[in-house]
């Protein structure tokens, strides 16, 4: 999954903190565009690529993050990393947040084991 970013390093750092991951690769293409790759499971990666202008409007694809325990505690942790709460969604089980560049994502309650 690729994510456009004004500052790929900042977003990669944020999402590494959210997902407990690390940067596995950095590079520039032939046009000088910067890329930062965050490893997930197996060969799955999040790729943050530098863009000059932010995407206008609501993002059509977003991540859902299942809280490992208490949902509110996870939201507080993510806010401490730089997220902001957009919608408490009282009639839904998720809470909508935005990452440091405004990309929306949801925090779900912990999954039943």
From TrEMBL:
Q: Which Pfam families match?
A: Glyoxalase_6
Its domain of life? Bacteria
Where does the record place the Glyoxalase-like domain? 2-108
InterPro entries given in the database record: Glyas_Bleomycin-R_OHBP_Dase, Glyoxalase_6
Protein's recorded name:
VOC family protein
Species whose genome carries this gene: Actinomycetospora straminea
> From which lineage does this chain's organism come?
Bacteria, Bacillati, Actinomycetota, Actinomycetes, Pseudonocardiales
